[in-house]
Amino acid sequence: GVLLLGRPLELPQTAATVVVRDGETLISDGPFAEAKEWIAGFDLVECADLDEAIEVAAAGPVSWFKTIEIRPFAGEPWLGEKAAAFGRGQDGPASPYLLATWTGRTPAAPGDQTVAREVTAWRQDLQARGLHILGAELEGADTATTLRVRDGQTLLGAGTFIKTGQFITGIDVVSCTDRHQAIQLAATHPA
Predict the structure, then answer these.
(1) How far apart are CA 43 and CA 56, in angstroms?
(2) What pLDDT is stored for residue 111 in this prediction?
(3) Of residues 11, 74, 72, 3, the one with CA closest to residue 39
(4) Cβ-count burial of 66 within 10 angstroms (0-12 exposed, 13-18 middle, 19+ buried)?
(5) How far is CA 119 from the centre of its chain?
């Protein structure tokens, strides 16, 4: 009863990295992090605490052959009108795309609300246009716990699952007609 929604992702070769610098949109193929690991999917669960989240993740068969990163949201996730249908795989004519914002440095100080206000406005605009499914900022990399289950034993680690110094700061799932539209939306993200 704790699973709110979740979905697998396509393989990394379908990913694109979108960076905007000096007004120019730069696109490269592949995921942001230069690592052999990749994000295979995500689940949004509502748990009382980290211990319950660990229990839930360890019970899932994915943990038996992959690593799971557990990390809390920095606030309440934005769940748009399409979130429930997305969780059931009922996307209609559009396709969902995950937009993951990454950083390789310390996140902005909590007192700096400028980017947070811009992200809120961006999400509100996409919701008004029927394109936003869900989104949220994540707590810092120091709050991450990795989990693997091997031979029936739950193995926990501190920190993010990709050890490059880069980590995801937030996620948004958008509903797009195609990859090109998803890239355009990513290019307008305030991050």
Answers:
(1) 11
(2) 47
(3) 11
(4) middle
(5) 15
